[in-house]
Write a structure and sequence with these properties.
- By secondary structure, the protein is of the alpha+beta class.
- It has a single domain, classed as Alpha-Beta Complex (YbaK protein), CATH 3.90.960.10.
- It is built from 7 helices and 10 strands.
- It has a 5-stranded mixed beta sheet with strand order 5-2-3-6-9. A 3-stranded antiparallel beta sheet has the order 1-8-7. The chain has a two-stranded antiparallel ribbon with strand order 4-10.
- The longest helix has 22 residues.
- The protein starts with 12 loop residues before the first helix and ends in an 8-residue tail after the last helix.
- The N terminus and C terminus are likely disordered.
């Protein structure tokens, strides 16, 4: 008879705080080694939509840049889009020569980034990154930094450089009503 296995215990609040601090420290070290200016903004609640970022006074919808983790037959990739846009799988498949592209599962996102969907960092070491050409047109962007209740503000060209991102047009415009509800969470 095999021993009974128990479900893993939920992480304590202290462990979660330590993990968040470690993620922030790691991001800071990475960006400082790269020599790029940035700001990490702390706030009372987690920003979970582009509109929420605008309402908090971070910037315009064009400056809100959610990071979505996608899966394909070649593995995972980070896709950074404008808060005013939606992903076009057709454009990604065509540009990257892929057959299958979709949102990664929440578990895959957690395993690849160490964070939950909705707080994925703009910078994900080791993950191929694509940046939509609309994002590349703005001077600086606001997006996740891998920790709830924190937002990364970084110059767009620095973000592209430190992530070695490939920049191309892979989104479609949203109408104004749907652009206002762009969430940072994947379905």
């Amino acid at each position: 008879m095999s021993p009974r296995s128990e479900a893993p215990l939920e992480a304590s609040a202290t462990e979660l705080c330590q993990a968040a601090e470690e993620r922030l420290a790691s991001l800071r070290r990475f960006l400082e080694r790269a020599g790029v200016p940035y700001r990490i903004l702390a706030h009372e609640t987690t920003v979970v939509s582009a509109l929420m970022g605008v309402e908090r006074g971070f910037g315009s919808l064009d400056e809100m840049a959610p990071t979505l983790i996608l899966r394909s037959e070649q593995g995972l990739l980070a896709a950074i889009v404008s808060g005013r846009s939606r992903i076009s799988y057709r454009k990604i498949k065509k540009e990257l020569g892929l057959k299958d592209v979709s949102f990664a599962s929440p578990e895959s996102v957690r395993q690849a980034t160490g964070t939950e969907v909705g707080t994925v960092s703009l910078v994900n070491e080791g993950l191929p990154t694509i940046v939509d050409s609309q994002v590349a047109r703005v001077e600086a962007v606001y997006g996740g930094c891998g920790v709830p209740r924190h937002t990364l503000h970084i110059h767009t060209q620095d973000l592209i450089a430190v992530t070695s991102a490939r920049v191309f047009d892979f989104t479609e415009p949203r109408n104004e009503r749907s652009a206002a509800s762009v969430t940072l969470r994947t379905p």
